[in-house]
Protein backbone atom coordinates (compact mmCIF):
# COMPACT_ATOMS: atom_id res chain seq x y z
CA UNK A 1 0.00 0.00 0.00
CA UNK A 2 1.35 3.48 -0.81
CA UNK A 3 2.34 5.86 2.01
CA UNK A 4 -0.63 8.01 1.04
CA UNK A 5 -3.14 5.15 1.26
CA UNK A 6 -1.48 3.62 4.34
CA UNK A 7 -1.53 6.86 6.27
CA UNK A 8 -5.14 7.49 5.41
CA UNK A 9 -6.16 3.97 6.38
CA UNK A 10 -4.30 4.13 9.69
CA UNK A 11 -6.22 7.32 10.52
CA UNK A 12 -9.46 5.51 9.62
CA UNK A 13 -9.99 7.74 6.59
CA UNK A 14 -10.14 6.86 2.92
CA UNK A 15 -7.74 8.65 0.53
CA UNK A 16 -10.88 9.59 -1.46
CA UNK A 17 -13.02 10.47 1.53
CA UNK A 18 -15.34 13.41 1.06
CA UNK A 19 -17.43 14.85 3.84
CA UNK A 20 -19.72 16.64 1.44
CA UNK A 21 -21.39 15.61 -1.82
CA UNK A 22 -21.16 18.27 -4.58
CA UNK A 23 -24.41 20.13 -5.12
CA UNK A 24 -24.84 18.91 -8.73
CA UNK A 25 -24.86 15.22 -7.73
CA UNK A 26 -28.19 13.46 -7.21
CA UNK A 27 -28.62 11.76 -3.80
CA UNK A 28 -28.95 8.32 -5.42
CA UNK A 29 -25.70 8.71 -7.39
CA UNK A 30 -23.19 8.46 -4.56
CA UNK A 31 -21.98 5.76 -2.21
CA UNK A 32 -21.20 6.01 1.49
CA UNK A 33 -19.16 3.87 3.87
CA UNK A 34 -17.96 3.90 7.46
CA UNK A 35 -14.30 4.08 8.46
CA UNK A 36 -12.72 5.17 11.72
CA UNK A 37 -16.11 6.04 13.19
CA UNK A 38 -16.82 8.51 10.39
CA UNK A 39 -19.06 8.47 7.30
CA UNK A 40 -17.38 9.00 3.94
CA UNK A 41 -18.94 9.57 0.53
CA UNK A 42 -18.04 9.72 -3.16
CA UNK A 43 -19.90 9.91 -6.46
CA UNK A 44 -21.04 6.66 -8.05
CA UNK A 45 -20.21 6.09 -11.72
CA UNK A 46 -21.63 3.35 -13.93
CA UNK A 47 -21.45 3.33 -17.70
CA UNK A 48 -23.99 0.48 -17.67
CA UNK A 49 -26.44 2.23 -15.33
CA UNK A 50 -25.94 -0.20 -12.48
CA UNK A 51 -27.50 1.18 -9.28
CA UNK A 52 -25.17 2.39 -6.58
CA UNK A 53 -24.48 -0.30 -3.96
CA UNK A 54 -26.29 0.28 -0.67
CA UNK A 55 -23.63 -1.29 1.57
CA UNK A 56 -19.92 -0.56 1.10
CA UNK A 57 -16.97 -1.58 3.26
CA UNK A 58 -13.35 -0.38 2.78
CA UNK A 59 -10.86 -3.20 2.15
CA UNK A 60 -7.20 -3.55 1.22
CA UNK A 61 -4.56 -6.16 0.36
CA UNK A 62 -5.45 -8.25 3.40
CA UNK A 63 -8.81 -9.24 1.89
CA UNK A 64 -8.95 -12.88 0.78
CA UNK A 65 -11.01 -14.24 -2.09
CA UNK A 66 -13.13 -16.27 0.34
CA UNK A 67 -13.89 -13.16 2.38
CA UNK A 68 -14.71 -11.25 -0.80
CA UNK A 69 -17.16 -13.93 -1.95
CA UNK A 70 -18.84 -13.86 1.48
CA UNK A 71 -19.23 -10.08 1.33
CA UNK A 72 -20.60 -10.33 -2.21
CA UNK A 73 -23.06 -13.07 -1.21
CA UNK A 74 -24.48 -10.59 1.31
CA UNK A 75 -24.74 -7.88 -1.36
CA UNK A 76 -21.94 -5.86 0.24
CA UNK A 77 -19.61 -3.96 -2.08
CA UNK A 78 -15.90 -3.66 -1.27
CA UNK A 79 -14.04 -0.38 -1.83
CA UNK A 80 -10.45 -1.35 -2.59
CA UNK A 81 -7.81 0.91 -1.03
CA UNK A 82 -4.74 -1.28 -1.51
CA UNK A 83 -2.43 -2.13 -4.42
CA UNK A 84 -4.26 -1.98 -7.77
CA UNK A 85 -2.63 -5.14 -9.15
CA UNK A 86 -3.78 -7.02 -6.07
CA UNK A 87 -7.32 -5.81 -6.76
CA UNK A 88 -7.08 -7.33 -10.25
CA UNK A 89 -5.84 -10.58 -8.72
CA UNK A 90 -8.68 -10.74 -6.18
CA UNK A 91 -11.14 -10.12 -9.01
CA UNK A 92 -9.68 -13.06 -10.96
CA UNK A 93 -9.78 -15.26 -7.86
CA UNK A 94 -13.46 -14.44 -7.31
CA UNK A 95 -14.15 -15.25 -10.95
CA UNK A 96 -12.51 -18.68 -10.62
CA UNK A 97 -14.43 -19.50 -7.45
CA UNK A 98 -17.79 -18.48 -8.88
CA UNK A 99 -17.11 -20.30 -12.16
CA UNK A 100 -16.13 -23.44 -10.25
CA UNK A 101 -19.33 -23.25 -8.25
CA UNK A 102 -21.41 -23.04 -11.44
CA UNK A 103 -19.58 -25.84 -13.21
CA UNK A 104 -21.56 -28.95 -13.94
CA UNK A 105 -24.98 -27.63 -12.92
CA UNK A 106 -26.82 -28.64 -16.08
CA UNK A 107 -30.57 -28.87 -16.53
CA UNK A 108 -31.70 -32.52 -16.60
CA UNK A 109 -33.00 -34.01 -19.83
CA UNK A 110 -36.16 -35.97 -19.21
CA UNK A 111 -36.13 -37.86 -22.52
CA UNK A 112 -34.33 -38.09 -25.83
CA UNK A 113 -37.18 -37.04 -28.13
CA UNK A 114 -36.73 -33.90 -30.20
CA UNK A 115 -39.26 -31.75 -28.33
CA UNK A 116 -37.68 -32.47 -24.95
CA UNK A 117 -34.19 -31.87 -26.37
CA UNK A 118 -35.23 -28.44 -27.66
CA UNK A 119 -36.83 -27.63 -24.33
CA UNK A 120 -33.77 -28.58 -22.32
CA UNK A 121 -31.45 -26.74 -24.72
CA UNK A 122 -33.48 -23.63 -23.92
CA UNK A 123 -33.27 -24.40 -20.21
CA UNK A 124 -29.51 -24.85 -20.47
CA UNK A 125 -29.21 -21.57 -22.35
CA UNK A 126 -31.15 -19.68 -19.69
CA UNK A 127 -29.21 -21.45 -16.95
CA UNK A 128 -25.99 -20.18 -18.52
CA UNK A 129 -27.42 -16.66 -18.78
CA UNK A 130 -28.51 -16.69 -15.15
CA UNK A 131 -25.13 -18.04 -14.02
CA UNK A 132 -23.30 -15.34 -15.98
CA UNK A 133 -25.58 -12.63 -14.60
CA UNK A 134 -24.94 -13.83 -11.04
CA UNK A 135 -21.23 -14.05 -11.70
CA UNK A 136 -21.21 -10.52 -13.12
CA UNK A 137 -23.18 -9.19 -10.14
CA UNK A 138 -20.72 -10.67 -7.65
CA UNK A 139 -17.65 -9.46 -9.54
CA UNK A 140 -19.13 -5.96 -9.89
CA UNK A 141 -18.93 -5.50 -6.12
CA UNK A 142 -15.16 -4.86 -6.09
CA UNK A 143 -14.90 -1.07 -6.34
CA UNK A 144 -11.97 1.28 -6.91
CA UNK A 145 -11.66 5.04 -6.35
CA UNK A 146 -11.28 7.68 -9.04
CA UNK A 147 -10.37 11.34 -8.83
CA UNK A 148 -9.60 14.12 -11.29
CA UNK A 149 -5.95 15.03 -11.61
CA UNK A 150 -5.80 18.81 -11.15
CA UNK A 151 -2.80 19.11 -13.48
CA UNK A 152 -3.97 17.10 -16.48
CA UNK A 153 -7.71 17.41 -15.96
CA UNK A 154 -8.03 13.65 -16.48
CA UNK A 155 -9.31 11.08 -14.02
CA UNK A 156 -6.86 8.79 -12.25
CA UNK A 157 -6.96 5.89 -9.80
CA UNK A 158 -5.26 7.04 -6.56
CA UNK A 159 -3.85 3.58 -5.76
CA UNK A 160 -0.34 2.08 -5.98
CA UNK A 161 0.58 0.62 -9.38
CA UNK A 162 -2.65 1.85 -10.95
CA UNK A 163 -2.54 2.28 -14.75
CA UNK A 164 -3.21 5.52 -16.61
CA UNK A 165 -6.96 5.46 -17.20
CA UNK A 166 -7.74 9.08 -18.06
CA UNK A 167 -8.56 8.58 -21.78
CA UNK A 168 -10.54 5.40 -21.05
CA UNK A 169 -12.57 7.17 -18.35
CA UNK A 170 -13.37 10.01 -20.72
CA UNK A 171 -14.33 7.43 -23.36
CA UNK A 172 -16.71 5.45 -21.14
CA UNK A 173 -17.84 8.06 -18.61
CA UNK A 174 -17.62 11.26 -20.60
CA UNK A 175 -20.68 12.68 -18.86
CA UNK A 176 -19.03 12.70 -15.41
CA UNK A 177 -18.72 16.33 -14.28
CA UNK A 178 -15.07 17.28 -14.25
CA UNK A 179 -13.78 14.08 -15.84
CA UNK A 180 -12.79 15.69 -19.09
CA UNK A 181 -11.73 19.18 -18.10
CA UNK A 182 -9.38 20.77 -15.65
CA UNK A 183 -11.11 21.92 -12.44
CA UNK A 184 -11.37 25.67 -12.01
CA UNK A 185 -9.60 27.63 -9.31
CA UNK A 186 -5.92 27.43 -10.24
CA UNK A 187 -3.07 25.53 -8.64
CA UNK A 188 -3.60 24.89 -4.95
CA UNK A 189 -7.23 25.98 -5.10
CA UNK A 190 -8.95 23.38 -7.27
CA UNK A 191 -11.19 20.85 -5.54
CA UNK A 192 -10.76 17.44 -7.20
CA UNK A 193 -13.91 15.49 -8.01
CA UNK A 194 -13.92 12.03 -6.43
CA UNK A 195 -15.85 8.96 -7.48
CA UNK A 196 -16.12 5.20 -7.09
CA UNK A 197 -16.50 2.70 -9.93
CA UNK A 198 -16.80 -1.07 -10.29
CA UNK A 199 -13.40 -2.54 -11.14
CA UNK A 200 -15.02 -5.13 -13.39
CA UNK A 201 -16.76 -2.42 -15.39
CA UNK A 202 -13.62 -0.31 -15.50
CA UNK A 203 -11.66 -3.23 -16.98
CA UNK A 204 -14.40 -3.57 -19.60
CA UNK A 205 -14.24 0.14 -20.39
CA UNK A 206 -10.46 -0.08 -20.82
CA UNK A 207 -10.85 -3.02 -23.22
CA UNK A 208 -13.55 -1.22 -25.19
CA UNK A 209 -11.33 1.84 -25.37
CA UNK A 210 -8.56 -0.23 -26.95
CA UNK A 211 -11.01 -1.59 -29.55
CA UNK A 212 -11.98 2.01 -30.28
CA UNK A 213 -8.39 3.22 -30.53
CA UNK A 214 -7.27 0.35 -32.77
CA UNK A 215 -10.49 -0.05 -34.74
CA UNK A 216 -12.07 -3.28 -35.98
CA UNK A 217 -11.25 -4.39 -39.50
CA UNK A 218 -14.31 -5.26 -41.60
CA UNK A 219 -13.13 -7.27 -44.63
CA UNK A 220 -16.21 -6.70 -46.81
CA UNK A 221 -15.94 -2.97 -46.14
CA UNK A 222 -12.21 -2.83 -46.76
CA UNK A 223 -11.85 -0.49 -43.81
CA UNK A 224 -12.07 -0.27 -40.04
CA UNK A 225 -15.05 0.49 -37.83
CA UNK A 226 -14.48 2.28 -34.52
CA UNK A 227 -17.07 1.15 -31.93
CA UNK A 228 -17.97 3.58 -29.16
CA UNK A 229 -18.59 2.27 -25.66
CA UNK A 230 -22.03 0.66 -25.38
CA UNK A 231 -22.34 -0.14 -29.08
CA UNK A 232 -22.20 -3.69 -30.37
CA UNK A 233 -18.82 -4.75 -31.74
CA UNK A 234 -19.15 -6.32 -35.24
CA UNK A 235 -16.86 -9.30 -34.62
CA UNK A 236 -19.00 -11.79 -36.58
CA UNK A 237 -18.43 -10.79 -40.17
CA UNK A 238 -20.58 -13.40 -41.89
CA UNK A 239 -23.76 -11.33 -41.54
CA UNK A 240 -21.96 -8.26 -42.89
CA UNK A 241 -20.77 -10.34 -45.85
CA UNK A 242 -24.38 -11.26 -46.64
CA UNK A 243 -25.30 -7.58 -46.98
CA UNK A 244 -22.22 -7.03 -49.13
CA UNK A 245 -23.19 -9.89 -51.48
CA UNK A 246 -27.01 -9.77 -51.71
CA UNK A 247 -28.26 -8.65 -55.16
CA UNK A 248 -29.29 -5.02 -55.51
CA UNK A 249 -32.23 -4.28 -57.80
CA UNK A 250 -30.55 -1.73 -60.07
CA UNK A 251 -29.55 1.71 -58.85
CA UNK A 252 -30.82 2.31 -55.32
CA UNK A 253 -31.27 5.97 -54.46
CA UNK A 254 -32.17 5.48 -50.79
CA UNK A 255 -31.87 2.81 -48.11
CA UNK A 256 -32.81 2.62 -44.44
CA UNK A 257 -30.67 0.71 -41.91
CA UNK A 258 -32.86 0.00 -38.89
CA UNK A 259 -30.93 -0.41 -35.62
CA UNK A 260 -27.73 0.83 -37.22
CA UNK A 261 -25.42 0.41 -34.17
CA UNK A 262 -21.88 1.20 -35.33
CA UNK A 263 -23.22 1.98 -38.80
CA UNK A 264 -21.34 -0.91 -40.40
CA UNK A 265 -24.23 -2.13 -42.60
CA UNK A 266 -25.09 1.40 -43.69
CA UNK A 267 -21.43 1.89 -44.64
CA UNK A 268 -21.44 -1.33 -46.68
CA UNK A 269 -24.54 -0.17 -48.56
CA UNK A 270 -22.94 3.20 -49.28
CA UNK A 271 -19.82 1.44 -50.53
CA UNK A 272 -21.99 -0.66 -52.85
CA UNK A 273 -23.31 2.47 -54.51
CA UNK A 274 -26.53 3.27 -52.66
CA UNK A 275 -26.91 7.01 -53.18
CA UNK A 276 -28.10 7.80 -49.65
CA UNK A 277 -28.41 5.70 -46.49
CA UNK A 278 -30.31 6.70 -43.35
CA UNK A 279 -29.54 4.66 -40.26
CA UNK A 280 -31.73 4.74 -37.15
CA UNK A 281 -31.17 3.71 -33.56
CA UNK A 282 -32.91 4.38 -30.26
CA UNK A 283 -29.63 4.81 -28.37
CA UNK A 284 -27.80 8.15 -28.64
CA UNK A 285 -24.45 6.38 -28.17
CA UNK A 286 -25.10 4.32 -31.29
CA UNK A 287 -26.21 7.34 -33.32
CA UNK A 288 -23.06 9.23 -32.34
CA UNK A 289 -20.92 6.15 -33.07
CA UNK A 290 -22.44 5.60 -36.52
CA UNK A 291 -22.06 9.25 -37.52
CA UNK A 292 -18.46 9.25 -36.28
CA UNK A 293 -17.73 6.18 -38.41
CA UNK A 294 -19.37 7.74 -41.45
CA UNK A 295 -17.12 10.78 -41.03
CA UNK A 296 -14.00 8.60 -40.59
CA UNK A 297 -14.91 6.64 -43.75
CA UNK A 298 -15.47 9.83 -45.73
CA UNK A 299 -19.12 9.02 -46.48
CA UNK A 300 -20.85 11.56 -44.23
CA UNK A 301 -22.42 13.07 -47.36
CA UNK A 302 -23.91 9.66 -48.23
CA UNK A 303 -24.90 8.24 -44.84
CA UNK A 304 -26.36 9.66 -41.64
CA UNK A 305 -27.76 8.21 -38.42
CA UNK A 306 -30.88 9.49 -36.68
CA UNK A 307 -32.25 8.95 -33.18
CA UNK A 308 -35.57 7.15 -33.53
CA UNK A 309 -37.08 3.89 -32.34
CA UNK A 310 -37.61 2.27 -35.76
CA UNK A 311 -38.25 3.74 -39.23
CA UNK A 312 -37.34 7.24 -40.34
CA UNK A 313 -39.87 9.36 -42.21
CA UNK A 314 -40.75 8.43 -45.77
CA UNK A 315 -40.30 5.30 -47.88
CA UNK A 316 -37.27 3.62 -49.40
CA UNK A 317 -36.68 0.94 -52.06
CA UNK A 318 -34.36 -0.92 -49.67
CA UNK A 319 -34.74 -1.32 -45.91
CA UNK A 320 -32.23 -3.40 -43.95
CA UNK A 321 -32.54 -4.66 -40.38
CA UNK A 322 -30.26 -6.85 -38.29
CA UNK A 323 -32.34 -7.19 -35.09
CA UNK A 324 -31.13 -8.93 -31.92
CA UNK A 325 -31.13 -12.64 -32.69
CA UNK A 326 -32.34 -14.08 -29.38
CA UNK A 327 -35.54 -13.48 -27.42
CA UNK A 328 -34.67 -12.48 -23.87
CA UNK A 329 -34.31 -9.63 -21.41
CA UNK A 330 -31.64 -6.99 -22.02
CA UNK A 331 -30.03 -5.44 -18.93
CA UNK A 332 -27.64 -3.12 -20.81
CA UNK A 333 -27.38 -1.45 -24.22
CA UNK A 334 -24.86 -4.11 -25.21
CA UNK A 335 -27.33 -6.83 -24.21
CA UNK A 336 -29.96 -5.06 -26.32
CA UNK A 337 -27.85 -5.79 -29.41
CA UNK A 338 -28.16 -9.53 -28.71
CA UNK A 339 -31.44 -10.01 -26.83
CA UNK A 340 -34.87 -8.88 -28.03
CA UNK A 341 -37.54 -9.23 -25.30
CA UNK A 342 -40.51 -11.04 -26.84
CA UNK A 343 -38.94 -10.57 -30.32
CA UNK A 344 -40.38 -7.04 -30.11
CA UNK A 345 -37.95 -5.37 -32.52
CA UNK A 346 -38.20 -8.21 -35.02
CA UNK A 347 -41.99 -8.02 -35.06
CA UNK A 348 -42.04 -4.20 -35.19
CA UNK A 349 -39.74 -4.27 -38.21
CA UNK A 350 -41.87 -6.82 -40.02
CA UNK A 351 -45.16 -5.10 -39.15
CA UNK A 352 -43.98 -1.70 -40.36
CA UNK A 353 -41.94 -2.78 -43.37
CA UNK A 354 -44.69 -2.80 -46.02
CA UNK A 355 -45.78 0.76 -45.25
CA UNK A 356 -42.21 2.08 -45.57
CA UNK A 357 -41.18 0.35 -48.82
CA UNK A 358 -41.60 1.99 -52.19
CA UNK A 359 -43.37 -0.01 -54.88
CA UNK A 360 -41.26 -3.03 -55.82
CA UNK A 361 -38.89 -2.39 -52.90
CA UNK A 362 -37.21 -5.00 -50.72
CA UNK A 363 -36.65 -5.48 -47.02
CA UNK A 364 -33.56 -7.39 -45.95
CA UNK A 365 -33.91 -9.19 -42.61
CA UNK A 366 -30.59 -10.54 -41.32
CA UNK A 367 -31.08 -13.07 -38.55
CA UNK A 368 -29.63 -16.31 -37.17
CA UNK A 369 -31.64 -19.47 -36.54
CA UNK A 370 -29.93 -19.95 -33.15
CA UNK A 371 -33.17 -19.03 -31.37
CA UNK A 372 -34.95 -21.78 -33.33
CA UNK A 373 -32.27 -24.35 -32.52
CA UNK A 374 -32.54 -23.46 -28.83
CA UNK A 375 -36.33 -23.75 -28.90
CA UNK A 376 -36.81 -20.06 -28.08
CA UNK A 377 -38.64 -19.34 -31.33
CA UNK A 378 -39.84 -21.56 -34.20
CA UNK A 379 -39.42 -21.17 -37.93
CA UNK A 380 -43.22 -21.33 -38.19
CA UNK A 381 -43.52 -18.30 -35.90
CA UNK A 382 -41.18 -16.32 -38.13
CA UNK A 383 -42.95 -17.32 -41.35
CA UNK A 384 -46.35 -16.55 -39.83
CA UNK A 385 -45.12 -13.10 -38.73
CA UNK A 386 -43.87 -12.41 -42.26
CA UNK A 387 -47.19 -13.41 -43.81
CA UNK A 388 -49.25 -11.57 -41.19
CA UNK A 389 -47.32 -8.37 -42.00
CA UNK A 390 -48.40 -8.61 -45.65
CA UNK A 391 -44.96 -9.69 -46.83
CA UNK A 392 -43.61 -12.53 -48.92
CA UNK A 393 -40.20 -14.18 -49.16
CA UNK A 394 -38.44 -13.36 -52.44
CA UNK A 395 -35.27 -15.28 -51.63
CA UNK A 396 -33.04 -16.30 -48.75
CA UNK A 397 -29.23 -16.22 -48.60
CA UNK A 398 -27.60 -18.47 -46.00
CA UNK A 399 -24.16 -18.66 -44.44
CA UNK A 400 -22.57 -20.57 -41.58
CA UNK A 401 -20.76 -18.96 -38.63
CA UNK A 402 -16.99 -18.76 -38.59
CA UNK A 403 -16.52 -17.67 -34.96
CA UNK A 404 -14.64 -19.85 -32.47
CA UNK A 405 -17.60 -21.11 -30.49
CA UNK A 406 -19.09 -22.82 -33.54
CA UNK A 407 -16.13 -25.24 -33.57
CA UNK A 408 -15.43 -25.40 -29.83
CA UNK A 409 -16.48 -28.90 -28.76
CA UNK A 410 -15.98 -27.89 -25.10
CA UNK A 411 -18.77 -25.32 -25.32
CA UNK A 412 -21.83 -26.68 -23.49
CA UNK A 413 -24.02 -25.54 -26.40
CA UNK A 414 -21.66 -26.80 -29.11
CA UNK A 415 -24.24 -29.21 -30.57
CA UNK A 416 -26.53 -26.25 -31.20
CA UNK A 417 -23.95 -23.66 -32.22
CA UNK A 418 -22.36 -26.03 -34.77
CA UNK A 419 -25.68 -26.19 -36.67
CA UNK A 420 -26.37 -22.46 -36.65
CA UNK A 421 -27.20 -20.75 -39.94
CA UNK A 422 -27.33 -17.00 -40.49
CA UNK A 423 -29.72 -15.84 -43.21
CA UNK A 424 -30.56 -12.73 -45.17
CA UNK A 425 -34.27 -12.89 -45.97
CA UNK A 426 -35.24 -10.82 -49.02
CA UNK A 427 -38.79 -9.70 -48.34
CA UNK A 428 -41.30 -7.92 -50.56
CA UNK A 429 -44.89 -6.74 -50.25
CA UNK A 430 -47.43 -9.43 -51.06
CA UNK A 431 -48.93 -9.05 -54.54
**Count of distinct strands:** 16
Strand portion = 15-25%
Q: Topology as H/E string? A: HEEEHEHHEEHEHEEHEHEHEEHEHHEHE
Q: Supply the CATH architecture of the largest domain.
A: 3-Layer(aba) Sandwich
Which regions contain 5 or more consecutive residues with pLDDT less than 50? 1-27, 106-112, 178-191
What is the number of independent domains? 2
Q: Please state the structural category.
A: alpha/beta
Q: Counting H and I runs of at least 4 residues, what is the number of helices?
A: 13
Provide mean pLDDT, rounded: 82
- Name of the CATH superfamily of the largest domain: Vaccinia Virus protein VP39
Radius of gyration, Cα only, in angstroms?
25 Å
Largest sheet: 7 strands, mixed
Helix fraction, binned, reads 25-40%
Features:
alpha/beta; 7-stranded mixed beta sheet; 22% strand; Rossmann fold; 431 residues; 2 domains; 13 helices
Topology:
Elements: H1 3-10, E1 30-35, E2 38-45, E3 55-59, H2 65-73, E4 76-80, H3 84-102, H4 114-139, E5 142-148, E6 155-156, H5 166-172, E7 194-198, H6 199-214, E8 216-218, E9 223-225, H7 238-245, E10 255-258, H8 264-271, E11 277-281, H9 284-296, E12 303-307, E13 316-321, H10 344-353, E14 357-368, H11 370-373, H12 379-388, E15 391-399, H13 414-417, E16 422-429
Parallel strand pairs: 2-7, 3-4, 4-5, 10-11, 10-13, 11-12, 13-14
Antiparallel strand pairs: 1-2, 5-6, 5-7, 8-9, 14-16, 15-16
Helix pairs in contact: 2-3, 3-4, 5-6
Q: Would you kindly provide a brief summary of this structure?
A:
The chain has 13 helices and 16 strands. By secondary structure, it is of the alpha/beta class. β3, α2 and β4 form a beta-alpha-beta unit.
Amino acid sequence: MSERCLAATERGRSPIASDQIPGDVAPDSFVTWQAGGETHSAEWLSANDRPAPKRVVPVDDRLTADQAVKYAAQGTAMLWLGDFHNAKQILSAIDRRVAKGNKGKKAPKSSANEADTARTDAEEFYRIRQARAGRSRIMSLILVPLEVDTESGLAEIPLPRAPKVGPAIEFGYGGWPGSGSKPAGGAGHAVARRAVVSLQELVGVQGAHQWFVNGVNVPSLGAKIYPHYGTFLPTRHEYVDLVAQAPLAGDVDLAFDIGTGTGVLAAVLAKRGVARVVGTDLHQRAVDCANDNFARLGIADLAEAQLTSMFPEGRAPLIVCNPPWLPGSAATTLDAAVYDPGSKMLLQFLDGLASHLTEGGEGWLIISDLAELLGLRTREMLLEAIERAGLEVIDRLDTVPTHGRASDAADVLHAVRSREVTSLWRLGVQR
